[in-house]
């Protein structure tokens, strides 16, 4: 997800292999094993940094690609991503209570990621490729409390201290900033609602959504208030990117980060507060 309308040092080293590395695949209707690569590439836009572009013609309604989540909350059977053992065997009551009282959701994803790193399921730098949110002044004292609680919790276990060296304030704030800017709220449109909702309500849930997840390729899509693509979930956290209209080869694919039915002022305000940019899409230029 793009944060700023200017170029950034983070965008220059995006490796091509990142797609396959992060489990994005093109889902064709047939089930043969050699699925073609997704018809998209990550490149640079003129004014919005990194973006996703079509490599061939895409028709209205086409499934452009799917993407498995890198990180989810809550961890659900249906997501295909279970809790790692460290997370299930530790006592998280203080941390969870702190998040619940403060209405925090992102620290739960950071905690999950830390557990994945300690378990060897992920590398501490796996999310570095994503664009971080810019913290406003005064937010640091908020996350420092969670950070201390998290470190305290890990140090109270028999986990080898050598496995915790990545757990610095810099790492924590960097991951939090990336999760904040790139998290998707999963809202299922069909399938196993009851399963997911039961699991969500049994866990920490500060919102009425089914869950939250962080993806790699979907995070590279820029925003447009009149998007040509959208992201949806059917029965689990596998994200599906679909075309809303015909797209020419080379055209940038954009999704809408917010509720597109809001008026111009409301959209501008929400995008600035939530993502830190002023939208300059065609619709916004006409103040529609
Ligand atoms: Zn706009």
UniProtKB/TrEMBL annotation:
SUPFAM superfamilies: SET domain (SSF82199). One of its GO terms (cellular component) is nucleus. CDD domains: SET_SMYD. Residues 38-258 form the SET domain. InterPro entries: H3K4_H4K5_MeTrfase, SET_dom, SET_dom_sf. Transmembrane segments: none annotated. This is SET domain-containing protein.
């Amino acid at each position: 997800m793009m944060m700023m309308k200017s170029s950034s040092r983070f965008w220059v080293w995006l490796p091509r292999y990142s797609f396959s590395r992060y489990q994005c695949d093109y889902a064709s209707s047939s089930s043969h094993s050699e699925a073609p690569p997704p018809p998209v590439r990550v490149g640079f836009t003129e004014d919005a940094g990194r973006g996703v572009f079509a490599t061939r013609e895409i028709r209205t309604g086409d499934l452009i690609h799917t993407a498995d989540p890198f990180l989810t909350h809550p961890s659900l059977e249906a997501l295909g991503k279970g809790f790692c053992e460290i997370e299930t065997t530790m006592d998280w009551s203080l941390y969870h209570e702190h998040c619940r009282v403060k209405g925090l959701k992102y620290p739960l994803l950071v905690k999950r990621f830390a557990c994945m790193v300690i378990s060897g399921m992920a590398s501490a730098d796996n999310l570095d490729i994503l664009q971080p949110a810019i913290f406003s002044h005064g937010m640091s004292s908020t996350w420092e409390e969670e950070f201390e609680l998290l470190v305290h919790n890990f140090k109270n276990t028999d986990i080898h201290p050598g496995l915790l060296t990545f757990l610095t304030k810099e790492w924590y704030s960097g991951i939090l900033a990336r999760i904040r800017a790139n998290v998707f709220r999963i809202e299922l449109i069909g399938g196993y609602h009851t399963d997911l909702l039961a699991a969500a309500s049994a866990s920490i849930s500060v919102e009425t959504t089914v869950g939250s997840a962080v993806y790699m390729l979907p995070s590279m899509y820029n925003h447009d208030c009149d998007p040509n693509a959208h992201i949806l979930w059917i029965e689990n956290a596998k994200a599906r990117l679909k075309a809303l209209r015909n797209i020419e080869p080379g055209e940038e694919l954009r999704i809408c980060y917010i509720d597109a039915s809001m008026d111009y002022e409301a959209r501008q305000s929400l995008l600035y507060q939530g993502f830190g940019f002023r939208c300059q899409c065609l619709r916004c230029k006409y103040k529609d």
